[in-house]
Structures are given as C-alpha cells and as structure tokens.
Amino acid sequence: MDPSKQETNQKKASKPMAKKETQEFQFVVYNTMTQQKEVFNPKTPGKVRMYVCGVTAYDFSHLGHARAAVSFDVLYRYLKHLGYEVTYVRNFTDVDDKIIRRANETGEDPISLSDRYCKEYNIDMSDLQCLSPTHEPRVSDHMEQIKDMITQIINKDFGYVVEGDVFFAADKFSNYGKLSGQKLENNRAGERVAVDSRKRNPSDFALWKAAKPGEPSWDSPWGPGRPGWHIECSAMSAHYLSFKFDIHGGGLDLIFPHHENEIAQSCAACEESDVSYWMHNGHVTNNNEKMSKSLGNFFTIRQITERYHPLALRYFLINAHYRSPLNYSVVQLEGASDAVFYIYQTLKDCQDALLQLQEEMPNDGKPARITPDAKECISKLRNEFQVKMSDDLSTSLILTGAFLEALKLVNNLLTMLKKQQKQQRLLVIQSLKEIQNEVTKVLDVLGLQPPCSYNEVLLQLKEKALTRAGLVEDDVIRLIKERAEVRRNKDFLKSDQMRAHLQAKGIALMDVGTETIWRPCVPVQQDSEIVPSEGQKVPPKPESA
C-alpha cells in the first residue's frame, strides 16, 4: 500500500522528546498490526526497546539486507535524536538448515562458517554507516533461553513432543493470523512449513528439531537437537527486552509466517506478551521481482560498493520511503553518487572558506547575526526535517526541498563572499557557519555525515567513478592535456567530442579560467551491468526504475 495514502491514527496523542525545538510535533509510525499510522508512545517514558530480525549468516549479504539494516538504523538514529534512550537488539541466525547445507558443501564447521559471515556482515554495516545495535545476540549463544521458552510453551499445552521433535500446536492459539491477516489453513504443509505426517495439524511448526547425523546439536529435555527458526527471536527478544517492548521490525517478507509465529510462541509462553508497534521495510526488487538469494537475482552489498561509494548506496536506499518497494536501478545509483558528491563538495567549499576566514569570526559568545535569507533557510530546513521525519520517517522528502535550497544558498553566499569587502563579510561568514551546522545535523540523523574529511570522501567518490569508467586518474589528466592542445589549435568540435566521450563514462570536465578540472557525473550512456569479482555470478541486467 502506498504510504502516502495511509491515514494517521490520531488517538493517544503525545509529544516526542525533541531537543532544542519549540515547535510541537508528533512522531507517527505505520503499525503493521493495525494497518495505520499511530502516534509513537513508548511503554516507558523516555526509553525505547526495539528488536529487529537480522540475517541468516551463510553468505555475503545482499542489497535487500542492506535496505533493512539502513531503514532501522535511520529509525534508531532518529529516536536517539529525539532524546530517547534506545535499547536496540538485532540478532544473527547462526544455526539454520541453510547454514548446514552451505557448510556441508564447503567442508566447514557450520558455526565457524556462520561466524565468518557474521563478521563480513558487520564490515558491510560499518561501510554503510549503520550504528552498532546495543546487542547482537546469536542463536548458538542462547540455547538455554530457547529451551526454557519451549518448556514454558509445552507446560501451557501449546507444544507437543514427537520422537525428539517439538511442535507448536498452531490451532490452539486463537489469535493466529492477527498480524498478517492469514488464516491458519493458509499455512499449508509443503509451502510455508515442512511436510511431516507426525504433526497433529499440517500448520504446526517446529520449535525443536531432533538431531540428525552430521548436524550440530545441543542437549535438551527432549533429546539432542537444535531450535526451529521462529523460536529464536521470541526467546532472544524476551531475554533482552522482556515480553513487553516497543518496536519489532524486519522485512516485509517476515510478516508471515515468521512474525506471525513469533507472536503465537511469545503469547503462549507469556499471556502478557505485547509488542506495541510492528514495523516492516519494503522489498528491493530487480525487474520488479523481489531480490533474494533463493531467486538468484540478487547483488551483494560488496558487488555494489566495489563500484559505488557506500554513502552513495545509503543515499540510494533512503531516497525512497522505507515501506515502499525499491527497484534496483543503476540510473538511480548514479544519481545518488552524483547527489552525495554535490553535498560534500558544497560542504567542503564552505568549510574551506570558513577556515580561511576564521580570524574574522567573532568569539564573544553572543548569538550569531545572520542574513534574513539564511535565517529563513535554516527555519525552513529545520521545520521540514521535523515534519517529514516525524511522519513515519519520510526520508525521501527530506533530501529534496529545503535541504537542496540550503546547499544552493551556501554556494550563493560563497560567491557573494568573494565580492565583498572585509567589513561586509561578517554576516555572510556567520550565515555560512549556521547553515552548515544545520545541514550536518540532518546528515548525521540520516547517517550520511562521512566518517572522514570532506576532501577524503570526495577523493573516494572520484576513485569509484574512475573504476566505473574503466580509467585511472592519469588517463583523465592525459586526456585533459590533449584536449587543451586541441583547444589551442581552435579545433572546438574535437574538443567537445573529447568532453562528451568522457561524460559518457561518467567523467565531467569543467573549464575554470585557464584550468580544466574533472569531477564525477551521471553518464549520458551507461552499462547497467555490475562487473563481478572473480568467481562471483551476476544476474541479468535490471530494468531502470
């Protein structure tokens, strides 16, 4: 459903804990359980407890995993920005059929294989500037909590044992389907759950799987074995957050059966189990088909970041509402790369100017005097950021409008600064400083503020552009020199052709006075295929969104 068409639930109005803002506003989120927007009210004032389902670690993570991580990282950052103390839990599944199959193929120990990919995942998350969660529990470290919850479920007659396996009796939970709207009979054996004639009901699902030869196992009251998939999140969320917490998140594909089964398990173990808000991010699609490992139509995060800067990828991911489908598109990735280059170039130019004029800046502790245009710009940016973020994290609407107007005003003020006398510059200098501060606050909440200097990130973006163009900087410098000679000979047609040739590769030449410099740009024509690393397979070219 289009997020823009959702109606806001106006009940239970409350004001978030916004810092240093006088305007009152309400943070609303879309709750999958009620299928409407609701004002966010944590169970404990000032504190938020949030659980997000993580990855099953048996391979490098793909673009869909990146979207889920970035979506909930933005939520995490925004809640902290509002002043909440947030406990954020995101798990790793390191005991699973897929992991065991992959380990058998490679001859590795399943836990060691999964540990390796957990570490690779965290490298990707660091590159994408996702903050580390408060806790990152793994299934293999929480067997006692899982077995305790299964025991509670059995004792309350919601689970039963068959030859060392433990199944959840789905038909005994009367509210099954309240999250997804799916009926119990839709959970047919052979589609969502494994076929097993020993089950009392085809919809019953495994809580504990009896040990099989060559698989990892743990001792339990029902014999050696390992947990089913769904029980792990119920047990670990209860362990770290209690049975009552504020937000449970994950991808749209987890609503049924995973989250539906989590609700059934948790409520069976504890009648008072309650999650206030269920939040789900939309799929990443390839040719409008869900991107996933099982379909073989995915790109890994590493494949993308070999050619595009991680911050360009993050920009691409948040340049759509987190609940909307996001179609993979090289055109949009190129646009995202161009957008972040413009942002960081503008901020670098601003920073350089302020450093040069540092001596002219007052240090008397008085409020800065700024131009009327700057004052209006800051007010508009601050208000637009509050309004859009508080409306279910509408990040895509923040990266346009007032934000771009602020960058444009910075560039205008920098031009003005060059033309003014020293005594006239103070207002402009202070205006630049205040706008820069406001822009960087927005970037910080969105996770787009680079961890290094603007100069460094610009050099990194240029290096990625050269990689995509199949060039090194020496090639560009040589072509610039050749073009300069052509221009001296007044062969302007050839000069334009040389410029167009580079522009088609994503390299823009700019003549500044007698000097020619280059920067990345969106290619006029581009190859939408990502070149794989050695040994990696790449799916067919996607259609541009």
Under CATH at level 1, the class of the largest domain stands as: Alpha Beta
Q: What number of domains?
A: 3
Radius of gyration: 27 Å
Largest sheet entry: 4 strands, parallel
CATH-level-4 superfamily name of the largest domain: HUPs
Structural class: alpha/beta
What proportion strand? 5-15%
Low-pLDDT segments, ≥5 res: 1-22, 526-545
Question: What distance lies between the first and last C-alpha atoms, to the nearest angstrom?
Answer: 18 Å
Discrete helix count: 16
Pfam family, one: tRNA-synt_1e
Cofactor: Zn(2+)
EC number: 6.1.1.16
Protein name: cysteine--tRNA ligase
Would you kindly provide a written description of the structure presented here, covering whatever features stand out?
The chain is an alpha/beta fold. The protein has three domains: 279 residues, Rossmann fold, CATH 3.40.50.620; 113 residues; 51 residues, no CATH class. 43% of the residues lie in helices and 14% in strands. It contains 16 helices and 16 strands. It has a four-stranded parallel sheet, sandwiched between helices. Strands 6-7-8-9 form a four-stranded antiparallel sheet. The chain has a three-stranded mixed sheet with strand order 1-3-2, with no helix packed on it. A hairpin with a 2-residue loop joins β6 and β7. α9 packs antiparallel against α13, α10 packs parallel to α13 and α12 packs antiparallel against α13. 41% of the residues are buried. This is cysteine--tRNA ligase. Its cofactor is Zn(2+). One of its GO terms (cellular component) is cytoplasm. Keywords: Aminoacyl-tRNA synthetase, ATP-binding, Ligase, Metal-binding, Nucleotide-binding, Protein biosynthesis, Zinc. One of its GO terms (biological process) is cysteinyl-tRNA aminoacylation.
